[in-house]
């Protein structure tokens, strides 16, 4: 079945450092890919998405490109801030599963001043 | 901006008791979902609901679970006889029809603790 694999955390970075969180997926169909963010004590917020190969999703300085050839959707940000400290979840959905989201385990990011 | 709301934010119950978790999806959305997140683990899909019927369900969603849309705004998840392992954060989500269907918007969650 479909699955999502994320890099293990926690990731600790200094403010203004470059961020990469790796995400790869396995899917039988043509999934849509998502990054969700969960700030401490809060629910899941959609950060960005891409619905087909080579699409780039972007929001709040974060970017991820849907790479079909490497089955990846890595999250990047050029300069992180303390306020970016959160847990980041990569997820996929496709029509075969009725659009149910299949999440990775999440990567915790801590940004220090 | 419209948002999904959930009540209660926290619930503590005794093992074997019934609980009902409530959600108010975004008003023009037609697809509704429940997910759970056991502490320290990944978010897991439970069930999706459309047109007053279950569309998809995971193997977690056994006979102890049920969902209902009792009126035009609420969407509920009932656990008939709670077990210790049902302790988790439960998230409701909704999505629109058509091109926006794959984008799900989540509520803040209900933290359920079964003692």
Could you describe the 3D structure shown?
The complex is a heterodimer of chains A (113) and B (115). Chain A is mainly beta and 113 residues long. Chain A has strands spanning 3-6, 11-14, 19-21, 23-26, 32-38, 44-50, 56-59, 62-65, 75-77, 86-93, 102-103, 107-112. In chain A, strands 2, 5, 6, 10, 11 and 12 form a 6-stranded mixed beta sheet that branches. Chain A has a 4-stranded antiparallel beta sheet with strand order 3-9-8-7, with no helix packed on it. The model of chain B has no long low-confidence stretch (mean pLDDT 93). The chains are: A mainly beta (113), B mainly beta (115). At the A-B interface, β5, β6, β10 and β11 of A face β4, β5, β9 and β10 of B.
Unreliable segments of 5+ consecutive residues of chain B: none
End-to-end gap of chain B: 37 Å
Rg of chain A, Cα atoms, Å:
13 Å
Report the sheet with the most strands of chain B, covering strand number, pairing sense and barrel closure: 7 strands, mixed
Beta-strand share of residues of chain B: over 45%
What does the overall shape of chain A look like?
Answer: globular
Counting DSSP H or I runs of 4 or more residues, the number of helices of chain B is 0
H/E element sequence of chain A: EEEEEEEEEEEE
- Unreliable segments of chain A (pLDDT under 50, ≥5 consecutive)? none
Strand content of chain A: over 45%
Tell me roughly what share of residues is in helical segments of chain A: under 10%
Number of alpha- plus pi-helical segments of chain A:
0
Residue-averaged pLDDT of chain B:
93
The major pleated sheet of chain A works out as: 6 strands, mixed
Structural class of chain A: mainly beta
């Amino acid at each position: 079945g479909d699955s999502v694999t994320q890099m293990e955390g926690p990731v600790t970075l200094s403010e203004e450092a470059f961020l990469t969180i790796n995400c790869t997926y396995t899917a039988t169909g043509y999934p849509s890919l998502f990054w969700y963010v969960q700030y401490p004590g809060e629910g899941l917020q959609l950060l960005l998405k891409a619905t087909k190969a080579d699409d780039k999703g972007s929001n709040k300085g974060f970017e991820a490109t849907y790479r079909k050839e490497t089955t990846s959707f890595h999250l990047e940000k050029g300069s992180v801030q303390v306020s970016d400290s959160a847990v980041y979840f990569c997820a996929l959905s496709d029509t075969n599963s009725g659009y149910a989201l299949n999440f990775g385990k999440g990567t915790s990011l801590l940004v220090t001043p | 901006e419209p948002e999904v709301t959930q009540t209660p934010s926290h619930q503590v119950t005794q093992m074997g008791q019934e609980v009902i978790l409530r959600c108010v999806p975004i008003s023009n959305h037609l697809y509704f979902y429940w997910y759970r997140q056991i502490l320290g683990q990944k978010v897991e899909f439970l069930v999706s609901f459309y047109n007053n019927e279950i569309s998809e369900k995971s193997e977690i969603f056994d006979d102890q679970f049920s969902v209902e849309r009792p009126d035009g705004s609420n969407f509920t998840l009932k656990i008939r006889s709670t077990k210790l392992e049902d302790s988790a954060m439960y998230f409701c989500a909704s999505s629109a029809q058509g091109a926006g269907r794959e984008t799900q918007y989540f509520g803040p969650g209900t933290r359920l603790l079964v003692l």
